[in-house]
Amino acid sequence: MPRGNVVKFVGRADALVSLHERLQHSHPVVVAAVEGMGGVGKTELATQYALIHLLLDTYPGGICWLRARDEDIGLQILQFAIAKLGLKPPEDWDVLKQVDFCWSRWHTGDVLVVLDDVNDYAKVEPYLPPQSPRFKVLITTRLQLDFPGSFTLDVLSESAALELLQEWVGGEKVAQELEDAKEICQRLGYLPLALNLVGRYVKKRKISLAEMLRRLEAKKLAHESLARDEKDRTWTLNIKRDVAAAFELSWDELSVDAKELGVLLSLFALAPIPWTLVESVETGKNVEQLEDSRVKLESLHLLQGENSYQLHQLIREFFQLKQAEFNQVEELKQSFCKVIIAVAQDIPQNATLEQITAVSPAIPHLAEVAKNLIQYVSDEDVPWAFEGNARFYNTQGLYDKAVPWYEECVEVTKLRLGEEHPSVAASLNNLAQLYCNQGRYTKAEPLHLQALQLKRRQLGEEHPSVATSLNNLAGLYFFQGRYDEAEPLYLQALQLMRRLLGEEHPSVATSLNNLAELYRNQGRYSEAEPLYLQALQLTRRLLGEEHPDFAASLNNLALLYFRQGRYSKAEPLHLQALQLKRRLLGEEHPDFAASLNNLASLYFSQRRYSQAEPLYLQALQLTRRLLGEEHPDFAASLNNLAGLYFRQGRYTEAEPLCLQALDILERRLGVNHPNTVTIRGSLANLRDRLNSQQ
Description:
The protein is mainly α. Among the domains are: 13-152, P-loop containing nucleotide triphosphate hydrolases (Rossmann fold); 158-243, no CATH class; 254-326, Orthogonal Bundle (Arc Repressor Mutant, subunit A); 343-412, no CATH class; 587-693, Serine Threonine Protein Phosphatase 5, Tetratricopeptide repeat. The protein is 65% helix and 5% strand. The radius of gyration is 34 Å and the shape is elongated. It starts with 12 loop residues before the first helix and ends with a helix. GO terms for molecular function: ADP binding. Keywords: Repeat, TPR repeat.
């Protein structure tokens, strides 16, 4: 029996109890199989179990430890029986008969037989003890065996992994560098073998955990800390293989097709992998062949999952190292990237919550393509690697997460395609629109102008993309209160859209809606209403009523009726828009917050203050969380709540809100913006009331 392998055995108390319970059944044959990936600690668990019960004398008939991988089981049983039990099987019998002779004359009492590292059950089965409940058979294996007493040994929990690392490097170092310690444990996938090797390396080299983390990130599985140094005379661990060698044993048992699947899976991010994406990659294999390969990986605990699958971090790195062994790996990477880019191209600009949920599993893999495999993406598809990620976050109102993707899209597209490529203009436009969503108007304007100039130069004036840029630039001027500059651009964009796309197009509906918004904010209600109604009808006809654009059209028409004092017509539209946004976008979205705010304003105007206040507060909290405290929409929410408190005579509560809103708008929109002027007037009225109370 091998000696203990670790400085301290941690995180396996429940596994030891479970293992003992499985071995105490009174079945004719009692077999417990500890299954799991290489390096997870199966042998160590069996060793610790055997040592504990050796001391407890649980097995008076003896504990027989047999090494199953690449060694003769029959000869080991005979050697044990002769040396430890004094048995003398007839030498002229064959090995199998001699083994049966020994089992039948084994010492009395319960017996524990450990078969360690079984890689071919059929070869060891003939040598198993007879069907007697006193023989307890414990198997450790990377295979998936179908015994009732089988269980899979998983990696350590974070707390157990930290405890194991602490045993090597000391509690003080872990406490001082706790975040780095956690990162190392995560980086090693909480694998006991890797943690023991790295812990010993840190202790011996006397380096910080931050430095260890840096070295692991640089070299990954190839770093020397994860290898056993055969020349190290101070080596005391009973570890026969390093991490890569432990995985190599499983690799050698795979078919060529299964190895190729492992390499393909290593291209995916370290995240759950939807099997449908794997099937979509052009590998030259049919569905059943892929399934066969997957089953083989699962049978060796190299892959886990059901409809989506997960590689352990170090196994993924091992498979990545194996990419060099495949001649067709470049083509495989190109095919993989093509599949992932197709997912990006299907993400709508105004995605619903259902669509976001459906595409979410693919997003980590899209990010992996953008970060590490962009050279395998075709020139025409390069922007999509970044735009898909950006669109995923942007459509949810998660603008801060979208920004780096759109910014990188501009830079990479310029480098790959040149400054004058149409995709560069599109990327500039997208980034500018995102800055507008964030209220960063001064950053957006030069990008919008640059995109418009590029498109005019490349595509001419008569192109839908030019119309889109005109519309977006007009939208920027609208948000800045530059209505006189916005109107001619909106009109030009609408005329272009109608001429190039026809009346029955969603972009025409968008242009109609935008122009109506401008007229509403200018108080030109009679001009706005027919445009709103036309946009609403078009959107319903072209996109249906279960679409975010339809909810937006309902909301905008309701705002017009609200401005006109037609409250009975506005309320059902606001309620319908709110319900639609809740269903389509979810409650953690800026558009949902805007609808809450609009409905609250309607109630406020009707003096339904008790209904307005909770909606204003909810909208304020949402806007703060989603957009931050420097966004003009947050200032609007502050001002609305201040207005409610003012109307209720709660002047001391209203003043700080009004001051904060004014400060934001003066800095973000300027002192002369219509909204800034309005709030400044509200603050003056508020202070008059406060002074009159003194």
